[in-house]
């Protein structure tokens, strides 16, 4: 069972997804990830998209730390039930029930709707079976759909290669924590970035 590390719901326990094929983010990795995001000012009032949400732990952490709207996208019914239960935990802590939304369905189908977005932060922690080509397709669907200064975070096994970034996204930072690798990308710029850009 995982927990929310910090923020309005800090310390509260979250349910985990039963079965195989998921890779829960450890507290150590989550703490490192969100320390970076907070240092960059990425969370306050952010619009967050949590793809392949699993238990929704990353999106719920973002909501606890001040995100304005979080959408958890997950296709597997047992995981969707856990996402909804964990969203309810966060809503009780925040005293409102309109921060975390849960969408049941495939990530590709969700992103195929051009009306979705824009987002300030996209968290993608795909399951082991997802191939690199499929991941590239997901990343390509995010091009042009980030808000100003928006960031995409991809979390994978440290044995996985770096994602193949589509035209329109560029990786600006990466990190490794044991068995977990994280890559951070932003909209590819054709000119110098503004002061304070996350890089």
Automatic annotation (TrEMBL):
- Pfam family of the protein (one): Cons_hypoth95
The answer to keyword Transferase applying to this record is yes
Return the protein name.
16S rRNA (Guanine(966)-N(2))-methyltransferase RsmD
The enzyme's first-digit EC class, named in words, is: transferase
Q: Does the keyword Transferase apply?
A: yes
Gene Ontology molecular function terms on file: 16S rRNA (guanine(966)-N(2))-methyltransferase activity; nucleic acid binding
Q: Which residues cross the membrane?
A: none
Keywords attached to this entry? Methyltransferase, Transferase
Its domain of life reads Bacteria
Q: What is its EC number?
A: 2.1.1.171
